[in-house]
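Need Cyclic di-GMP phosphodiesterase's 3D structure for a figure. Predict it.
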Amino acid sequence: MNKIHTVLVVDDQPENLAILGELLESHYRVKIANSGQRALHAAATAPIPDLILLDVMMPVMDGYQLLARLKENPLTRDIPVIFVTAKDRAEDEERGLELGAADYITKPIKPVVVLARVRIQLENKLAKDWLKDQNAFLESEVARRMHDNELIQNASLHALATLAETRDPDTGGHIFRTQSYVQLLAKAIRQHAHYQGQLSDEHLKMIVRAAPLHDIGKVGIPDHILRKPGPLTAAEFEVIQTHCKIGGDAIALAMQRVKDADRSAYRSQGTPLAFLEVARLIARSHHERWDGYGYPDQLQGELIPLAARIMALADVFDALTSKRVYKEAIPVEEAVAIITAEKGQHFDPELVEVFLRLQREFALIAQKFKA
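Structure prediction for Cyclic di-GMP phosphodiesterase:
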C-alpha cells in the first residue's frame, strides 16, 4: 500500500492557500497554516508533514525565521522546505538555500512546475528516510555483532586463564576474584588526583579484560614445582618466577604472528587486539615491586606499568585471603594490615590509599567468589 504524503502549505494570503491547496489535494494530504506560529504547531503535530511549501513574506515571523525555528526542533528539522515566493532575486534564493531550503519556486506559480518540484522532493525524502532506516539497522547489527564478538573473546580469555588455573589446584575462583578486584581498583583510581587522565574508558576496559591472563605463564612451570604441597626451595622459586616472562613472551609472540599475518589488524591502540599489549604488560610485570626488588625486570616506581601495579595489589590480596595447600587463608583485616605495611615498598603508595577505602568491597568480592 502506497503511503499518502502530507504537505503543509504556509502563506498569510488566503487566496494563495486556496490555490496551492486545490492544486495539491488531489495528490496529497494537505495541511495549511496562515502564520509562522501556526505553521510551527502544524509541523510538529501528527501527521507530521513530509514536505512544507513556505511563503517568505509574512508578518511577525517571515519564512526565513520560520525555517530557522523548524531546524531547531528535532521533530521538524528534517522536513524538506520549498520556498514559494514573489521574491525572485538571486540573492533571495541563495539566502533561502543557505538556510536549508530544499528548493525555491517563484510566484506566480506554474502548476506543472509546483507538482514536479513537490514530487521530486518527496521522492528524495523517501530515499533519505529509507537510507536512514538502513543505517540505523546496520548500526544496530554492527553493535550486536561487536557485542557477540566481545562475549566470544571474553569466553576465550577465560578459557585460557582457566587452563593455567587448572594446573594450580589451589587457586579456584582466583581469576574471577582478581578480575573483580582489578575492576574495582581501576574504576576508583580514576577519581584520585594522581591518576586522573591516565585511564580512559577504553584503557580501563582493556585492563579488566586482560587481568585473567596474568598467570598464563604458569602453563610453562613443571607440575612437580607448581603443585608442590609445601614451601619451595630457592631454586624452585626461581623457576616459579619465570612464569612472568613465559606469559609475557607468549602473548608478545601471539601479537607478532598476528602482525605478520595481517598488518592492518594490529595496532598499539584502538583495535580488538590492543588489549593483548595490556595483557602482556600485566603478565610480565605483576610481580614487580614499587621498591625495585620484584621480578623479572626489577622495575621501580612508576616505571612499572599502571595495569601491572593494580594487578599486583589484587593478586597479593587474593593470595593472602585464599587457602592454599601450603597455608590457610588469613582474615581480610590481617591482609589489609600486611598490604598497608607494604605501602611504598611492595605496592604503589597512592594505590594502597585507594585500596584502603575499598576494603569492604574487597571483602564482599572475596566472599562472593569463595572457593
